Prior knowledge:
Blueprint: E1 8-10, E2 16-24, E3 37-40, E4 47-51, E5 65-69, E6 75-80, E7 86-91, E8 97-101, E9 105-109, E10 115-120, H1 123-128, E11 130-138, E12 141-148, E13 153-156, E14 165-166, E15 179-185, E16 188-195, E17 198-202, E18 207-210, E19 222-227, E20 233-238, E21 242-247, E22 253-258, E23 267-270, E24 280-284, E25 288-293, E26 299-302, E27 307-312, E28 315-320, E29 323-329, H2 332-338, H3 345-357, H4 362-372, H5 376-388, H6 393-407, H7 416-432, H8 442-448, H9 450-459, H10 463-473, H11 481-492, H12 500-511, H13 519-528, H14 532-539, H15 545-554, H16 558-568, H17 578-589, H18 592-600, H19 603-616, H20 618-627, H21 631-641, H22 649-665, H23 669-692, H24 701-710, H25 714-723, H26 728-742, H27 745-753, H28 762-770, H29 774-781, H30 786-795, H31 799-809, H32 812-821, H33 828-843
Helix pairs in contact: 2-3, 2-5, 3-4, 3-5, 3-6, 5-6, 5-7, 6-7, 10-11, 11-12, 11-13, 12-14, 13-14, 15-16, 16-17, 19-20, 20-21, 21-22, 22-23, 24-25, 24-26, 26-27, 26-28, 28-29, 28-30, 30-31, 31-32, 31-33, 32-33
Amino acid sequence: MDCYTANWNPLGDSAFYRKYELYSMDWDLKEELRDCLVAAAPYGGPIALLRNPWRKEKAASVRPVLEIYSASGMPLASLLWKSGPVVSLGWSAEEELLCVQEDGAVLVYGLHGDFRRHFSMGNEVLQNRVLDARIFHTEFGSGVAILTGAHRFTLSANVGDLKLRRMPEVPGLQSAPSCWTTLCQDRVAHILLAVGPDLYLLDHATCSAVTPPGLAPGVSSFLQMAVSFTYRHLALFTDTGYIWMGTASLKEKLCEFNCNIRAPPKQMVWCSRPRSKERAVVVAWERLMMVVGDAPESIQFVLDEDSYLVPELDGVRIFSRSTHEFLHEVPVASEEIFKIASMAPGALLLEAQKEYEKESQKADEYLREIQELGQLTQAVQQCIEAAGHEHRPDMQKSLLRAASFGKCFLDRFPPDSFVHMCQDLRVLNAVRDYHIGIPLTYSQYKQLTIQVLLDRLVLRRLYPLAIQICEYLRLPEVQGVSRILAHWACYKVQQKDVSDEDVARAINQKLGDTPGVSYSDIAARAYGCGRTELAIKLLEYEPRSGEQVPLLLKMKRSKLALSKAIESGDTDLGEQSLVFTVLLHLKNELNRGDFFMTLRNQPMALSLYRQFCKHQELETLKDLYNQDDNHQELGSFHIQASYAPGERIEGRVAALQTAADAFYKAKNEFAAKATEDQMRLLRLQRRLEDELGGQFLDLSLHDTVTTLILSGHNKRAEQLARDFRIPDKRLWWLKLTALADLEDWEELEKFSKSKKSPIGYLPFVEICMKQHNKYEAKKYASRVGPEQKVKALLLVGDVAQAADVAIEHRNEAELSLVLSHCTGATDGATADKIQRARAQAQKK
């Protein structure tokens, strides 16, 4: 244990800090870090170096080289910089490299040096040039802050959704501030800058002078400032050598330290651990690094070579040409177990396990001591927690063996924490490997989440490792293996040195019918890479036809898209219908003739398009019928056109004549004759309107006859009936109904006596009763034939006579009908009479 704590350095009485090596860097740097622009991503992210930046002492002819390495120094990308001078580099939260140029353009590159996109920070920045820039991270995304040559600030809090904000002007600012940084308070990005002894806070509308509480007197300038990883705390380095530490709101002072060095530091970053009360700042000069906090002493490290500090969630990464190290506060669990002469439960349990392996009886003594204090559960938990914070696998195993040993003596210790820690450490050790180069700590891993870690492995094209982790952790396929295979396939289609057939076959063999994988998404990536034929081959593996259509349309393979849309079964007549969408696309893409020929080969699409044309494009519908020589539908079309609103009578008759001709060509003589009759009727109705007035146009033949009768033109009605051969029965019904509606009972009686009624006289009774005229109805009831006599008498309410007729006819159905109309005492005698007639009939 004494040896293990040799690299522990106390800061005051309550905290220890340790620095251990992550990697021995094997990169072949030809220049010092001081001669490069450097950017390192947090959470064990990659390192970007822009060699030979634009400096006066450098030859103008030498082009700089942008190189990207993993945290272990493994090269990921290298490219010759051909754009303008770069002022600053920084990594976004998605591990995209942002290169801020002097002209305000920001170029975005991927992890492997692939150019993604670019954007500008505005015309004002372009005109005044960029003096300095910062890449910062907020809960909304990654932002960029710019200091221009006019000493004005412009920033965007999220480069993914670029909204530029020009910050207020600082009064009297004639030169660049001595130092500045970005703060995030109340979900808003601010700029904090130092001008001589004064500090100014810029928000979107105001510039406010601020003063750190409790600042030592005599300060004439601020040389450096640093905000913590979580933006909660701020550190200020003054020209007096004092380091002020407090809250980022500048409302509370935490502590102040005099380092007795007045030279401005190269870097100053915070070194703090989540949920720890200790606060420390790491300050680096050319050959000295100092850790200071709320203690009279500091921790000092000699730097043998140029080093660069990377603030992390729970510490600071320090890399140089030869090494990559991690400095952090020793976690409480590790301190309790490993500090000298510790009697903590975890320390005793670790000793007990070691003695047990030696087969020593001391193991029992240690174990009994823990059990007597009732601290065995706490001891196991301490060992599990400490294992998570250890970087060396041998120490992890030692602590986990101790935890496993202690668990054996507990009845109800939940195994979840032990199992999950074992899984997490196995994943962490895998990604910390030199060839992978992601030195995550346990705290960083938990903050980052497994999904983001998998995304980062995919970005590095480490697909096998990502799949192994998914399978080991038994993640759902859609979140794990399927998603990674889809990313692999999207990368595979970018390999242009492999033929389309080989790539498509390899992707299908690897993916098969894996759930959650969309071949259409992979095909879209192939098309984006300019491999149209490969995209089509991949779409053949997509089981959902509907998913193929949008990309086929984008690739201008509209005819194939139409076939796939029909296969999908989405053929509703609506703007959201796939077939409908493809049809409109085809219509805009092809000339009229080719479009119609394409439809003829797809009957279902043709039918759907016809339905659409019936509602919105009637002329196109007519052209379709003409091209297909579909005279039957063409005739129907012209009939419908003849009823168009506002059409003059001559045009309507002409349309009907065209329809009749079409029906004759279709050999539909019935439809042709009916159309000709309609033409005759239209002309007659127009003549009736001219001669008699009133509204006749567009009435049916029956309604025309009825209207004539109602208006008193009986002879005209009869002539119309003869002209159009209306049967007598139908004419009598029409006249009967019309006269009853007029309540012209005298004319109705004359009409009934004009000749024998072809419809009988029961309808007269019914119509009169419908008009509530029983008196007139009785006139016709006596003239009704025997077979309908009973029904007529019942209609006029003569139940007794109806009973007599029914008895006379000896008809059981009629007797039952009359009996059903007998109600109360008034018809009691009639009912008895019917019952007696029934009884007599049964005796016979």
